[in-house]
Amino acid sequence: MSFVKFMGSHWPTLALSAAAAALSAFVLLVSGASVGLSLLVAGVVVGSAIISIAIDYRRKRPFYGDLAACTDDLEHPLWIFEMVDEPDYPEGRLAYEALSAVSKAANDDVSEYRRQAQDYREYVETWVHEAKSPLAAAHLMLENLMESLPADETGEVLLEKTEALGEELDRVEGFIEQALFFARSESLDRDYLIRPYSLQKLVGDAVRANARVLMGAHVAPYRIDLEQTVFTDEKWMNFILGQLIQNSAKYAAGEGAELVFSSRLCDEGLSSERIELEVRDNGCGVEQADLTRVFDRGFTGENGRTGKRATGIGLYLVKRLCDKMGLAVRAQSAPGEYFAVTIAFPTNKMHYFE
């Protein structure tokens, strides 16, 4: 707080001092004192008030200065109490104690919410791992059942039904994976390992992991110019690509459906040099009005309301995880023609250690 503002906050004191000085000068003049003496007394009264305020300002300035600095520069307001020294005047100590109580209560609440969030995240992770066991057993039972089906018309009907059941189990497994990665996305640093990977390998692994989804939707995957090497985490990127594959399969155009993976090197030699991986399908696309919101949580758009069983979580997780890993992601589309998601990998390795 500046001295001028501090003086302004003490205008009642200054006003009373000025009134007292004027009254003293008037009394002295009426009593026969000289004009010079009257003005001297008035000046002493007003000057004493100003000096008193200046001394008070000098004593309070460190406390107010610390508060102002914390308000302007501190990264988190809850740290203010730790950065401010206790003042030596009564009203300052009262404000300091109040600040201490508020800070302690707020920090206790934050700690409690963090503990609850951590407990919930650990519960979700444990539940996911437990839920995978019966799913794996169900897949094994289906495979055994399919192998034992008779080779006749009845067997063909049963085979078709068991394959449909297998696809639904895959959907359940996909939703469980979403829950796991959603829970882990808040603590990415605990499960994140940067290494160089070939885009050909990353895309190939994701396609193989989602082969049943692609075959069920009759989508043909194509890989073009994927000889580039990028720095990323294999597990998280496999999940991201899996979400893009499942999203494209969900909105596939039917006959002639394609999913094209391609890469290119952009801004070569510049500080913004990057490798962009584009995942493009020829499905129903997205309306321009919906394009800016496709990465919002829970947003399904017009296409999601027409029986596609969309949840609005897949692309949200793609954007969230890319942001956590420092990867740029954007979407492009033309309704009825294509939908494309582009992920940009910085080529500067120092980017991942900032």
Structure description:
It is a multi-pass membrane protein. It is found in: Cell membrane. A hairpin with a 7-residue loop joins strand 4 (257-266) and strand 5. The chain has helices at 3-9, 11-30, 35-73, 80-83, 90-147, 153-184, 199-209, 211-216, 234-250, 288-291, 314-324; strands at residues 195-198, 219-224, 229-232, 257-266, 274-281, 328-334, 338-346. It has two domains: 3-108, no CATH class; 192-353, Heat Shock Protein 90, CATH 3.30.565.10. The protein contains eleven helices and seven strands. The model has no long low-confidence stretch (mean pLDDT 81). By secondary structure, the chain is α+β, with helices and mostly antiparallel strands.
Features:
Heat Shock Protein 90; 11 helices; 354 residues; 2 domains; elongated; two-stranded antiparallel ribbon; single chain; alpha+beta
Provide a brief overview of the structure.
This protein has 354 residues and is of the alpha+beta class.
